């Protein structure tokens, strides 16, 4: 019975660890979603600046036009890098979600195992109690018969 209690303790400890892991995975998932939204906003701002640079291309001064085209190329590069980072964050978010679901499933499994072990422990305790009561009843009955037979 002590061994069963130890098993229950270990499983409960593991379940608590899984709970903490699930919470951490969900926090990483939320942080990734916020970073992704920020990067998408940055990409949109870069795109808007790029559009304004293209609108400004009507400038006749060649030096100014070269500067404008150079800025447009730089902004296009920044925009692509930002989109690449956002895509990478999407993958990270999906991985974190899968990890959170996996840990949630493990936690549910551990919880079911704990419940089963607790049921077994209660049944064992009842069985031990019933055996002790039967033994005590048998001793009282034997003692009574001995008194009757004397």
TrEMBL record:
Q: Which domain of life is it from?
A: Bacteria
Listed A to Z, the keywords are:
Coiled coil
Q: Which residues form a coiled coil?
A: 100-127
Question: What is the name attached to this protein's record?
Answer: Flagellar FliJ protein
């Amino acid at each position: 019975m002590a061994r069963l209690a130890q098993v229950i303790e270990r499983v409960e400890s593991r379940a608590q660890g899984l709970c903490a892991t699930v919470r951490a995975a969900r926090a990483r998932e939320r942080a990734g979603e916020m970073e992704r939204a920020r990067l998408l906003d940055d990409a949109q701002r870069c795109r808007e600046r790029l559009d304004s640079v293209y609108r400004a291309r009507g400038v006749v001064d060649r030096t100014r036009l070269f500067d404008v085209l150079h800025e447009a190329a730089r902004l296009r590069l920044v925009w692509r890098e930002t989109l690449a980072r956002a895509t990478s964050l999407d993958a990270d978010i999906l991985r974190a979600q899968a990890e959170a679901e996996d840990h949630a499933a493990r936690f549910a499994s551990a919880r079911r195992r704990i419940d089963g072990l607790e049921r077994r422990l209660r049944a064992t305790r009842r069985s031990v109690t019933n055996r002790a009561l039967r033994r005590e009843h048998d001793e009282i009955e034997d003692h009574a018969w001995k008194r009757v037979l004397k």
